[in-house]
Amino acid sequence: MSYSNNIIFGPIPSRRFGISLGIDLSPSQKQCNFDCLYCELEAAKTVDTMTTYPSVEEVISKVKNSFEKHPKIDVITITANGEPTLYPQLEKLVDELNKIKKDAKTLILSNGSTIYDEKIYKALLKIDTVKLSLDCVSQKCFKKLDRIHAGIDIEKIVEYMVKFSKETKNILVLEVLFVKTLNDKKSEIEALYEAIKKINPHRVDIGTIDRPPAYKVKPVSFETLEQIAQTFEGINVNIAYKNRPKLQSSFSEEEIKTMLKRRPLTKEDIDNMFDDNSKKLLEKLLTQKVVSLVDSSGLDFYKIL
């Protein structure tokens, strides 16, 4: 079977990663070991391996063609209509992409569930940016929200994320999607924070439902995401929220320093939270080298030195 028409999507501009070329490793149907309540794809029975998929040669051929037409690709994003790490030849594909990627970086978007499979773990170590989901760390919440395939163990996932973070020479980003009444409970948020501290990723993206979900579940508010970000003290947290409200206030130098000690803030946070005078004070602290601007896998964070 040929998949060549829909293996590749883009290149498209990405706010965080520049010009992104997408690879869909399951273009003909949803093949996933999760059936998340919030998924924008239709509900489907979970699987633990892909049965229909393009060959490595087919994928590489399409990527090469894209590079000929669009030489300025910044990132090659490995995804799937489902879970990309279920692709049986992942390590071979990554090796071949690394041979032809030139200055582009590789990125994978995964639900993180297969990280304790040694073959997949090895393949992930060869990818420039690995972005993994972690919606719950209690098995009860994990099963209810992510509707997982039998046998997937959240404790092992966290254990291997900790191991991976220590071993990788590249970038690890975690993503948490919050759903009303499910993983927004205080106990779940505290458990997530403890796990994230141990994992120590470069960045955590937190968000909520912003597209029609497969099941009848509701998003949390922007205010809830802000409160959660405050709870994740000392972590580079990026709030991914469409049309976030502007709530600009005035802050003193001391207030700015206290805020940044608690949690580094993105440029987008500053634009939404700081009035013009507060922004000038922040610039002054930058000039004085009290505050630094640090790139964390494509996003700039203001941090206390």
Largest sheet: 8 strands, mixed
Low-confidence stretches: none
Spatial strand order of the main sheet: 1-2-3-4-5-6-7-8
Overall pLDDT confidence: 87
**Helical fraction:** 25-40%
Q: Write down the overall geometry.
A: globular
Structural class call reads alpha/beta
The DSSP helix count reads: 10
Please tell me about this protein's structure.
It contains ten helices and eleven strands. With 305 residues, it is an alpha/beta fold. A hairpin with a 3-residue loop joins strand 1 (8-14) and strand 2.
Short description:
35% of the residues lie in helices and 20% in strands.
Task: Present the secondary structure layout.
Layout: E1 8-14, E2 18-24, H1 56-69, E3 75-79, H2 90-100, E4 105-110, H3 118-124, E5 129-133, H4 139-146, H5 154-167, E6 171-178, H6 186-199, E7 203-208, H7 222-231, E8 237-240, H8 253-262, E9 265-266, H9 267-273, H10 276-287, E10 291-296, E11 299-304
Parallel strand pairs: 2-3, 3-4, 4-5, 5-6, 6-7, 7-8
Antiparallel strand pairs: 1-2, 9-11, 10-11
